[in-house]
Write a structure and sequence with these properties.
Elements lengths: L2 H11 L1 H7 L5 E3 H11 L8 H10 L4 E4 L2 E3 L15 H13 L6 E4 L14 E5 L4 H9 L7 E5 L6 E4 L2 E4 L1 H10 L9 H11 L7 H10 L3 H12 L3
Parallel strand pairs: 5-6
Antiparallel strand pairs: 1-3, 2-3, 4-5, 7-8
Helix pairs in contact: 7-9, 8-10, 9-10
């Protein structure tokens, strides 16, 4: 058994402890993993970690979703272009449609942006008409959801797309809205948003004009024009 294989064997022995330590987390940083191993498997050093990470990713025990960010789940589940709606989110939407007088606007998850903004906390965003905001908050307060839920006002003419019959935000809208939510402020610095834009601009279907039009309706078009310029013309 080579040195890396022996190290992997010790890591696998500690795997149940590791999963328990990160219970409830989908995304973890490499720094957090190294901090865990410093106590549980001190043989895993910063110098030896890349080889260990490669073996764990190849065996699909971990999945690389962004630089310095790993997940216990496969990356396709968090894709801004092909969002996945778990059954509990579809049930929540049905609950909203049944419990509110006005039709709700849309829902989206920061999970779908995390491949591009890896420091985003996991939040499910539900958008409803202003007149229904308090009622929606009360309704959702009594229902269990695996992710924290933020209820916010629906912006008319928002760029949305239908996923299994449910209106969800397009990536352009999610970016603009993420930068406006106080709950996400720590993860949406100009540098982080410009990096996310640079990655999204390489993806088919991402629409710069749509992003700027929606940003203008939200009163943030100057910031996004500057961010687009930074993404398109890196120094």
């Amino acid at each position: 058994m080579d040195a890396v294989a022996a190290l992997i064997d010790r890591v696998l022995r500690a795997w149940p402890q590791l999963r328990g330590y990160f219970r409830g987390r989908d995304l973890i940083t490499e720094a957090e993993l190294l901090a865990f191993f410093a106590t549980a498997v001190p043989e895993v050093t910063a110098a030896g970690w890349p080889a260990v990470r490669q073996r764990l990713v190849c065996s699909q025990l971990l999945h690389q979703v962004a630089p310095g960010r790993l997940s216990f789940k496969s990356a396709p589940a968090a894709d801004a272009r092909k969002p996945v709606l778990p059954p509990e989110w579809r049930a929540l939407w049905q609950q909203l449609q049944t419990g509110l007088a006005l039709p709700p606007g849309c829902l989206w998850s920061t999970r779908w942006l995390q491949p591009f903004l890896p420091d985003l906390p996991t939040v499910l965003v539900v958008e409803v008409r202003w007149a229904e905001l308090i009622w929606a908050e009360r309704l959702l307060a009594s229902s269990f959801q695996p992710d924290p839920v933020v209820v916010r006002p629906w912006q008319r003419f928002s760029p949305v797309r239908q996923v299994r019959g449910i209106p969800t935000a397009r990536p352009e809208k999610m970016l603009v809205d993420a930068a406006r939510l106080p709950e996400l402020a720590a993860a949406t610095s100009d540098a982080a948003l410009a990096a996310a834009l640079a990655a999204l601009l390489t993806r088919p279907g991402f629409n710069q004009l749509l992003l700027l039009q929606y940003a203008a309706r939200c009163g943030t078009e100057p910031r996004w024009s500057a961010l687009l310029n930074a993404a398109l013309n890196p120094t």
